[in-house]
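[step 3/7] fold_predict: job queued, chain A
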Amino acid sequence: MADGPHRATAAAVLTLVGGPDNVTSLAHCLTRLRLGVRDRELVREAELAALPAVLGVIPDDTYQIVLGPGVVDRVSAEFAQLLTDRPRPVDADELAHRGAALRTEQRARNATPGRLLLHRIADVFVPLIPALIGCGVVSGLNGLLVNLGWLPSLVPALGAIGAAFLSLIVVFVGYQTAQVFGGTPVIGGAVAAVIVYPGVAGVSVLGTRLSPGQGGVLGALGAALLAVWLEKRFRRLLPGALEALLTPTLTVLITGLVTLFGLMYAAGRVSAAVGTGVGQLLSHGGLFTGLLLGGLFLPLVTLGLHQALIPIHTTLIAQQGATPLLPILAMAGAGQVGAAIAIYLRLPRNPSLRATIRSALPAGLLGVGEPLIYGVSLPLGRPFVTACLGGAAGGALVGLFDQLGSGVGATAIGPSGWALFPLLKGGHGPAATAAVYAAGLAAGYLTGFLATYCFGFTPAMLTTLNATPAGEPTDVH
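[step 4/7] structure written:
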């Protein structure tokens, strides 16, 4: 408990030596309180010596305030408590350090076999994103020309350019999978190519004829993983003279047969279930689904679990030409942007943090949220939660439009925020599709802003975060 008279003495001494920001060290001996001070000009020595409990002041290497035996111990303890309790300025560097520590901690927690597998699967698909974006934009342009009736002679060419990559995406997935997991990339591509080969239409499984492309990217992923596993074992077991001939032959043959008579059928069922499941969720419970996905996406990002969605997005794009999940998940970034603007306004006397927000906000508007997540909201704590509320609101609105039959999808993964506009696809024309997505962004911005402005800070947080170090100018822009 605080000792009243000694607490009052400590508080008076702290004020007269220039305040907590002027104190650099604290120690005491049998009779004297020894203080290191940053600026001796701020010490009001005459007033300090006049305090009733002070028996004398000795300016030396440290300021020595004579209090007497017994008293010095109690005043020193109260003085240390005042220094601990004082609002300390929190700047962008400190928040960045906290964010880096949080990211390191999350990575350590993520280093489980399951999450490491997700990281490696993400490594399969991430290199494909530039091609998905390029072809997605071309497909969007082609759709616009079709709707407007312009340049009919160019439409078939643009259609071929936009669709060609998706028609062969399984080959690239197979190639990348083998490369990431330590096999021969071209063998991975070769076994995946079986899936899209037109001749598979002559193969029957369980009385049902296969169709080219059945199983999609999930089948290609499974086929390439099996090929890598077989290749490694054959290379270890076969004698050197035969290994170069038999390893690729047996790998392609066995994996191809398993793909045709098992993986294509099984992966086709899973892919169909994914497409049907997502469609059912959005058509019958779009509002709740959007609220949940939009609200939880930022925590999923910090945990690394969002990577599990990449094969789902890719499957939906290959099946339906667009993924309806990405515009919903993009609302998390909108909530983050709204929260950042509120933080900026609530911290008028924290110039370094405001400068960080100004520099990171343009990237946040374009869907690159990591600078705001790890540099601002996550280290602060409460604003991260209120940013998630903004994402939930935007996701709920976009999901509601899905439920009402005016859903939007993205023809590629990777971009978010404003950068997603050129990749949007919907059933009611480009203008209506863009309007739905823009309404979701607006809801995310507004809710993230209001939730953070009203509930993102405790009074103590505001005091601490707005504590400007002595001599530092206040940012009033």
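[step 5/7] annotate
Residues 92-101+308-465 form one domain.
Residues 7 and 447 are 44 Å apart (CA to CA).
exit 0
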